[in-house]
Amino acid sequence: MKPIYILLLIIAYFGLLLLIAHFTSKNDSNETFFKANKNSPWYVVAFGMIGASLSGVTFISVPGWVQSAQFSYMQIVIGYLFGYFVIAYVLIPIYYRLKVTSIYEYLKIRFGTSTHKTGAVFFFISRVLGASFRLFLVASVLQYFIFDAWHVPFEITVILSILLIWIYTFKGGIKTIVWTDTLQTLFMLIAVFGSIYFIMNQLNWSLTDLFASTEFKHYSKIWFFDDFNDKKYAIKSILGGMFIAIAMTGLDQDMMQKNLTCKNTKEAQWNVLSLGFILIIVNFIFLTLGALLFIYAHKFNIYIPVVDGSVKTDLLFPEIALQSNLGKTIGVLFVLGLIAAAYSSADSALTSLTTSYCVDFLNIENKPKNRQKAIRKKVHISISIILILVIISFRYLLKDNVISSLLQVASYTYGPLLGLFAFGIFTKITIKDKWVWLVAVISVALTYLINDYSVSLLNGYVFGYELLIVNGCITFIGLLALQKRK
Question: Sorting pLDDT into bands at 50, 70 and 90, what band is 38?
Answer without folding.
Answer: low
